[in-house]
Design brief:
This protein is α+β, with helices and mostly antiparallel strands and about 120 residues long. It has three helices and seven strands; from the N terminus they run E-E-E-H-E-E-H-E-E-H. The strands form two sheets. It has a five-stranded antiparallel beta sheet with strand order 1-2-3-5-4. Strands 6-7 form a two-stranded antiparallel sheet. The chain is globular. The model has no long low-confidence stretch (mean pLDDT about 90).
Length: about 120
Amino acid sequence: MIRFGSSRIVFLIGKWAIKIPVNKCGVEQSYQEIKTWNKYKSKPFNKIIYKLGVITIHQRANSFELDLFNDFRNKIFEFEQIYPELKFKRGDIYRHENWGIVDGEFVIIDYGLNIDIENKYY
């Protein structure tokens, strides 16, 4: 299965999600995601299993219903307090499709956007 974002393409193959940038914004988002993972290396960020330059491989997350996400919104407030650099207008944390479930826990599967990238490209 293939998913297209605004700046990266994701190949969902078996238990893996392979993210490949398709433009300069995607390259910057991949670098930002790698930087964020290297800083925290824990959930709720979906683990980067392997990277090759700006191509990253993650464990594939299961999707979930929007109703469950609405129940989860109170956790987003906690997430904002712990990781304030991800709290901004178009932040990845606010979009249902940027979350998934891995090993029974909610994880953010797209966390490459930051305020600088948002201002530059969006």
